[in-house]
Amino acid sequence: MKLTAVIMAGGKGERFWPKSRANYPKQFLSLTADGETMIQKTVRRLKNLVAKQDIYIITNQEYLYLVKNQLPDLPKENIIAEPCPKNTAPCIGLASCMIQKKYQDAVMLVLPSDHLIHAEEIYLNTLKQAVAFAEKGENLITLGIMPTYPETGYGYIKYLHDSSQDGIYGVECFVEKPDLETAKNYLNSKKYLWNSGMFIWKASSILNNIKKYMPDLYTGLQPIANAYGTENFEKILIENFPDLPAESIDFGIMEKAENIYTIPSSFGWDDVGNWLALERINATDNQGNLFDGDIISVDTRNCTVCADNKTIALLGLDNLVIVDTPDALLICDKNSTQDIKKVLAEIRKQEKFNLL
Amino acid sequence: MKLTAVIMAGGKGERFWPKSRANYPKQFLSLTADGETMIQKTVRRLKNLVAKQDIYIITNQEYLYLVKNQLPDLPKENIIAEPCPKNTAPCIGLASCMIQKKYQDAVMLVLPSDHLIHAEEIYLNTLKQAVAFAEKGENLITLGIMPTYPETGYGYIKYLHDSSQDGIYGVECFVEKPDLETAKNYLNSKKYLWNSGMFIWKASSILNNIKKYMPDLYTGLQPIANAYGTENFEKILIENFPDLPAESIDFGIMEKAENIYTIPSSFGWDDVGNWLALERINATDNQGNLFDGDIISVDTRNCTVCADNKTIALLGLDNLVIVDTPDALLICDKNSTQDIKKVLAEIRKQEKFNLL
């Protein structure tokens, strides 16, 4: 069966402010020393498995230029702009309709555009295993990541750990982001996986489930699906997409459907959720510092610093994130990185919209 | 007797890096909200007491333009550039010779250019009291500041506190910068004053003492003194000044001479010795922050921030000094401000001389 990939690239990049902006979110940034952006990494990895004419990017209107600019060798018609953000279920529904119309049916890899994977060969082998299982029936597979520490920023998957079918397991339930105590229990129990948001299924499988569990979405998608491949597609998309129900695929389908499976995986996955991730995905020096740019450091430890066009001198500091850009400089205690939304709220309150 | 003032403005401004630079030291910066620079404040205060044609600035070659630019109404011939830095004794010796030659004798106020004074009326009255006492004999008077907290960054004067002649006291000895425990003892004993480096004496008094305690300096000054007022002055100064012994007036004269007096003073003096001084001389907000420029602050306390031409967002910070300039940004824990010389040493080591 034909193998396709759908990369979801509509996310806003607030957590990497001031490097990410409303019109330049995380997926278009390079956060590693190699200079490759997150979405470029995502596509490059996939090309080992999926032909480029079968890779689709679903983004939004504002990022269309960035996607085309960063991924010049993808077919232009494979890059679809949502007229407005509607969470993941309409995005995946739209892609599934397009793929079903074009290929009758096909296996879809549904992937975020802004995650990092260290062990790419293991990752590709895991996807192959999932693809084979997806072809077999109406199976909805989500990749679960074996936790390596008690992360409180991820949702978890409780899996039926004695139900293995060649390394593929049934899912008991999905659970919300835990507190630290709960996360520690999850880690120790070995029955919980990080929910990576990577899905593998046939277009027909997910559409059947959308029809069953999200009938309004299914109905709303039909005129768009019918117009796909015609010259009216863009017009019909703009007219109909805003009326689709905004919902996540996790809540709308995964938490309700049967035949949900997971593959407990260990390929060095990181969702690069905020500035703290940088020290996980890049090598720090022997003082725990991670420096990019022209830095003068004295008696300074555990600081992550991105300089822009000037020298930054650090003296007697510990545990800070410092990010300089031409119009805004962030200095943040590492324990406060999750509160960056408070900074953005203050910027909005002060009506400094050019900084967003 | 004629009253003159000599303002010493040759100091390097390392402790206010990156706002101060080797060619733009502290005395030429404004560190208060009113925009007036330190040397402008010093001269403005004095004009209540001394005619502007009797105010002399001793600076060095590199700062000549800055002095003339910031003090345009002082006579150009009153601004003297030392060919090289030689500490305070040669500087004061030179000024004393010039004043003696021009006025036969005169009282001299010898003052640093980069200190701050809150209660200017009390300050002027204290100077008047010192001037009257200096006229009376060969008295060398130094203003002592009643300590208000156990500062470890100043030298102290131990005064003979039961020797008052109308508020003027004999000096028992000068002591070096103390450790915190010693500074606390000094404060509690009420027998010690901060050494402000402000002196009042007749030109003849200090020159007699230089002749006695620093004969090499006295001899070395003679050809320069003889040339003062002639067209050869600058040439002779450049030829002879570099050979004068480099020494402080405190070590060379004050710690050795007789007739040393002090006036215990309380006029809100601050030597503005480093970035920490800013929160003493400016009002902080109710979180202890002192902000200059476009700052967005979230959960941040006790930070002193000077923004340049971009927005600075602070998140979850405490006890930092942050100073942005077009080519260098300093971020420093307040407990490390005395180590700014380590940053400058590192800049020299990396041969980034344009940042000095």
Task: Give a brief rundown of this model.
The structure is a homodimer of 356-residue chains. By secondary structure, chain A is α/β, with parallel strands linked by helices. Helix content of chain A is 31%, strand content 24%.
What class, by secondary structure content of chain A? Answer: alpha/beta
Which pair of chains forms the biggest interface, and how many residues does each contribute?
A-B, 38 and 37 residues
Major sheet of chain A: size, sense and barrel closure? 5 strands, mixed, barrel
Instruction: Please report which band the strand proportion of chain A falls in: under 5%, 5-15%, 15-25%, 25-35%, 35-45% or over 45%.
Output: 15-25%
**First and last CA, distance of chain A:** 44 Å
Number of helices of chain A: 11
Write up what this structure looks like.
2 copies of one chain form a homodimer. The first copy, chain A, is α/β, with parallel strands linked by helices. The first copy, chain A, has 11 helices and 17 strands. The first copy, chain A, has helices at residues 38-46, 64-70, 88-103, 120-136, 180-189, 203-213, 215-227, 233-240, 249-254, 278-281, 340-349; strands spanning 3-9, 55-60, 79-82, 107-112, 116-117, 140-145, 156-159, 169-175, 192-202, 260-265, 269-270, 290-292, 295-298, 304-306, 311-315, 320-324, 328-333. In chain A, the strands form 4 sheets. Chain A has a 5-stranded mixed barrel. In chain A, strand 16 and strand 17 form a beta hairpin. The longest helix of chain A has 17 residues, at 120-136. The N and C termini of chain A lie far apart (44 Å). The interface between A and B is large, with 38 and 37 residues.
